[in-house]
Amino acid sequence: MVAVIDSTKPHSARFWNYFVGGTDHYEVDRRIGDEIKGIFPGLVDVAVAGRLFLGRAVRHLAGEAGIRQFLDIGTGLPTADNTHQVAQKVAPDARIVYVDNDPVVLEHANALLTSTPQGATAYLEADLHDPEAVLEAAAGTLDLSRPVALMILNTLGHVADHDRARDLVRRLLAGLPAGSHLVISDSTATSEGMIAASEAYNASGAEPYHVRSISEIAGFFDGLDLVDPGIVQVPEWRPDTHGPTDPATAAVDAYCGVGRKP
């Protein structure tokens, strides 16, 4: 079935793609993007810093932590240095499953379906709101009796109720064994500019995205062993002096963390 893409309203995947310098967006996405840049230019730094965090987190997990399986929920549109590319550069036998229920992402899914001969990459059309179905489908590629890195980057804001979002994360982790890791990064309501940008985006007709407090981000990691340096602003999580230079300072309105399931 051909995915139906609505180009009359802004879309979070295309909007974010525009902010990180991608090419998969429409005029409506660029228009709200430019409006929000005028309200809060710092959102561009949030977007770029988030992509660089993904790379650092995956390199740590595939390297130091020895993780060989990644479940990336809320994939978004492919750009450079996607999860499978970073992981398989460190560990060619890494297996990656991307999950999204978005027709825009579905249209571009083939760009994600590449892999080293030793590893595997799969794309699933599934919904974060049905964790058990996500896990069941992912088990076709991943061995869920072995540790998995569960990655949910810039996605949980689509779940309006924080308790509901925490429950979804809890249910996903419940299906993964000890030694698995949770990776989350998201925008935070830590400045008037970010709050204004969020309100402008939500008023544009796009599916709303809710920015949360730092304590709410930290709450997703309850019961896990936080990996140093804990819950921090995105550029502060293990900055890589040998990798790409992060143009954002530590003062971005986005926080992240990595936690290990004991």
- Report the β-strand fraction as a percent range: 15-25%
Q: Average pLDDT across residues?
A: 88
- General shape: globular
Find the count of extended strands (DSSP E, 2+ residues).
8
What Rg is obtained from the alpha carbons, in whole angstroms?
17 Å
The biggest sheet, with number of strands, parallel, antiparallel or mixed sense and barrel status, is: 8 strands, mixed
Regarding quaternary structure, what we see is: single chain
Helix content: 25-40%
Judged by helices, strands and strand pairing, the structural class is: alpha/beta
The H/E string reads HHHEHEHEHEHEHHEEE
Distance between the termini: 42 Å
Please tally the helical runs, counting DSSP H or I stretches of 4 or more residues: 9
List low-confidence stretches: none
Structure characterization notes:
The chain is 35% helix and 15% strand. The chain is of the alpha/beta class. 48% of the residues are buried. Helix 7 links the parallel strand 4 and strand 5. Strands 1, 2, 3, 4, 5, 6, 7 and 8 form an eight-stranded mixed sheet that branches. Helix 1 (12-19) crosses helix 2 (27-39). The protein is built from nine helices and eight strands.
Give a brief outline of the structure.
This protein has 262 residues and is of the alpha/beta class. It is 35% helix and 15% strand. Strands 1, 2, 3, 4, 5, 6, 7 and 8 form an 8-stranded mixed β-sheet that branches.
Q: Can you lay out the helices and strands and say which pair or pack?
A:
Elements: H1 12-19, H2 27-39, H3 42-62, E1 69-73, H4 83-90, E2 95-100, H5 103-107, E3 120-125, H6 131-138, E4 149-153, H7 162-174, E5 181-187, H8 192-202, H9 214-219, E6 225-226, E7 232-233, E8 254-260
Parallel strand pairs: 1-2, 1-4, 2-3, 4-5
Antiparallel strand pairs: 5-8, 6-8, 7-8
Helix pairs in contact: 1-2, 2-8, 3-4, 6-7
